[in-house]
Design goal:
By secondary structure, this protein is of the alpha/beta class. It is built from 11 helices and 8 strands. The two termini are 37 Å apart. Bound molecules: SN-glycerol-3-phosphate. SN-glycerol-3-phosphate (G3P) binds next to helix 7. Pfam families: TAL_FSA. Keywords: Cytoplasm, Pentose shunt, Schiff base, Transferase. GO terms for molecular function: aldehyde-lyase activity; transaldolase activity.
Length: 217
Amino acid sequence: MRIFIDTADTNELREAFTTGLVDGCTTNPSLIAKAGRDFKEVIAEICEMTDGPVSAEVASTEADMMIKEGKRLSEIASNVVVKLPLTWDGLKACRAMSEEGIDTNVTLCFTAAQAWLAAKAGATYISPFIGRLDDLGQQGMELIGEIRALYDTQDYQTQILAASIRGPLHVKEAALLGADVATIPPKVFKALLNHPLTDKGLSDFVKDWQGTGQSIL
Ligand code: G3P
């Protein structure tokens, strides 16, 4: 499973890329608003950090305008993926963009039926929102399994991009269920590594090694 970072904060993103474990980035209008910077500038800056996919979301809700905005965004860099909402207009735009060879990420997916429609429209990625379903008292993760089964049974190549990830458990479960990618907030990415027993174990090893008075080099 590939790792994308779900942020428009270029400082956080740059730090995450230094690990060598990050394959791409996703943004959305809320993350852009939080960053408080010019949208296209931010996307250009991110695309300079990576050759991996960088999702940039259209702002319009009407297909013709979405297509125009999507084309403009795709001109920023060759690795821009145009993010489109899961509406009829979004699917029309998705079909048009995929016919032009522009990668798309269909977002705000909450059912397997929606994911099926996005695949039929030629989406490169589908973004099921796990955390927002959990917030409603539903099992968000079940959606990942359903979409995986549907795409495999029906032989769709659309990649499942698990989104709205709230913690390390979401990441692990998405991987076990066969998601192709998880887009992870920077805080959760850091939390994936942390374990108190790792810290304590290392601290003991360092202390004991120093006690030997030896040097490897
Ligand atoms: O970028 C889409 C998605 O990951 C948003 O997550 O936490 O706002 O539900 P969240």
